[in-house]
Write a structure and sequence with these properties.
single chain, 88 residues, mainly alpha, 4 helices, elongated
Amino acid sequence: MESARTRFRPILMTTVALIAGLLPLALALEPGSAVRASLGAVVIGGLLTSLALTLFIVPIVYLRLAPEQLAEPLEIGGGQARQAGAEA
C-alpha cells in the first residue's frame, strides 16, 4: 500500500505524457492517418487500464486478501539467530 502512495505522482505523470503524445495519432488529424487511429485508441485505453490496475485495483485486492499480514511487523533474518546471539 505504501508503494502506491509513493509512486502515484510519477506513474500519473508518465501516463499523462504518453497519452498527450498519442492524442494526435488517436484523433487522426492528418490525411491518411485514419488507419493508425485505432492503434492510438487501443494504446491509450491500455495505458488507462494499467494505470487503474496499478494504482487502485491491485492495492485494494491486496488489502482484502492479506489484511493480517499488514498488521504484523515484518521480521527480517529470523528470530532464532537473534536469540542465539543474545545467549552467547
